[in-house]
């Protein structure tokens, strides 16, 4: 049945669904049977969401829908507007400075600011520092090349040696990438301008000026507290997890489609929090230390959502549902944890005593909640 589905996906076949499966007799077999039949339904009718969401097979929506979705995200995103203001301020300041101070290649200042202020590539602080250090290292290599290599056809073998360093060193970090690409750019500039080592000082001055502007006007002037940046978002995610547990097993349990939407929204929020944590890890103290201390809690919350989903599937396929007292206890523990995360910036002592009936479908979930609460306790 699985190979039949794989063949249908590969060939685009959307014929009659329904793999012939034996009648399930156990809880596990019923879960597998349900999953296979759902996959067959998806393959048979991969309808596209009219709101522009990718279809059920994961194929992208129409170009117009994707453009509209991107424009809506940019227009309604506070982070996008904040980034635009930061970049505009830095570029405006750079243009003011280069109009006052004579700089031979002023466009390098604006380019440096744009490269450092990448919103999706980590901390501005670390990128500015690595950009400056990488530029200095790259200029040392460029100085040797420009001083010793004769102009002309000798540039070709030198570029053959230097160019592969860019993709080779890029995975090692932004500083390595900058150090590798700087001599390549200067060698190509020398081919056009024939200025040799006279390119070195302007490149150094412009790059350091751009890094300084990005660091001051794009970073230090936009302080964000730990709570507004990470803490409140993490606390909201824990609160949402408590609501997800109640929606899955509480007296007012939602229907499966609503539960699936809630789960997907929760995973999206956790993905954004994970990204923000990874940026915060590269920040100078105390933000970096706090992010390192709280990072395991993000992973623990993801595991709680996974355990809740697994328990819900087990109940759907024949396991005994949990009692209302169990659900209330777990959701209460999660809300207490969320309140603690929202109020403090350092690890604190919490209760981790979670007990329940042996063999309950929520036993794995209780273990994950207890683990999450123990993370919040100082070790």
Automatic annotation (TrEMBL):
**Single GO cellular component term:** plasma membrane
Keywords from the named record: Cell membrane, Membrane, Transmembrane, Transmembrane helix
* Pfam hit, one: FUSC_2
What are the Integral membrane bound transporter domain coordinates in residue numbering? 96-216
Q: What family does this belong to?
A: Belongs to the YccS/YhfK family.
Q: Where is this region: Disordered?
A: 1-24
Q: What is this protein called?
A: FUSC family protein
Subcellular location(s): the record lists:
Cell membrane
The record's listing under InterPro entries reads: Memb_transporter_dom
Q: How is the protein disposed in the membrane? A: Multi-pass membrane protein
């Amino acid at each position: 049945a699985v190979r039949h589905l794989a063949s249908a996906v590969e060939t685009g076949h959307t014929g009659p669904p329904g793999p012939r499966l034996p009648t399930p007799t156990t809880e596990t077999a019923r879960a597998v049977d349900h999953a296979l039949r759902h996959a067959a339904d998806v393959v048979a009718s991969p309808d596209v969401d009219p709101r522009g969401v990718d279809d059920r097979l994961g194929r992208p929506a129409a170009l117009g829908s994707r453009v509209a979705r991107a424009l809506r995200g940019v227009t309604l995103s506070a982070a996008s507007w904040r980034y635009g203001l930061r970049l505009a301020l830095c570029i405006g300041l750079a243009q003011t400075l280069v109009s006052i101070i004579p700089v031979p290649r002023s466009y390098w200042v604006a380019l440096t600011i744009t490269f450092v202020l990448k919103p999706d590539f980590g901390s501005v602080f670390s990128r500015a520092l690595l950009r400056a250090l990488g530029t200095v290292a790259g200029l040392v290599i460029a100085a040797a090349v420009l001083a010793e290599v004769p102009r002309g056809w000798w540039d070709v073998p030198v570029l053959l040696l230097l160019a592969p360093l860019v993709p080779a060193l890029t995975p090692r970090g932004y500083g390595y990438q900058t150090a590798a690409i700087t001599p390549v750019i200067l060698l190509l500039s020398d081919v056009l301008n024939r200025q040799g080592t006279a390119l070195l000082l302007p490149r150094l001055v412009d790059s350091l000026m751009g890094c300084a502007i990005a660091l001051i006007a794009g970073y230090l002037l936009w302080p964000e507290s730990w709570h507004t940046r990470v803490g409140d978002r993490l606390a909201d995610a824990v609160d949402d997890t408590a609501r997800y547990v109640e929606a899955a097993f509480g007296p007012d349990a939602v229907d499966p489609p609503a539960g699936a939407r809630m789960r997907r929204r929760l995973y999206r929020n956790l993905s954004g929090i994970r990204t923000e944590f990874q940026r915060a890890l590269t920040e100078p103290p105390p933000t970096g230390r706090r992010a390192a201390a709280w990072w395991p809690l993000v992973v623990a919350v993801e595991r709680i959502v996974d355990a809740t989903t697994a328990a819900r599937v087990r109940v759907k396929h024949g396991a005994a549902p949990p009692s209302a007292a169990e659900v209330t206890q777990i959701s209460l523990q999660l809300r207490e944890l969320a309140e603690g995360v929202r109020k403090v910036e350092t690890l604190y002592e919490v209760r981790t005593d979670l007990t329940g009936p042996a063999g309950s479908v929520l036993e794995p979930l209780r273990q994950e909640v207890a683990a999450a609460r123990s993370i919040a306790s100082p070790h």
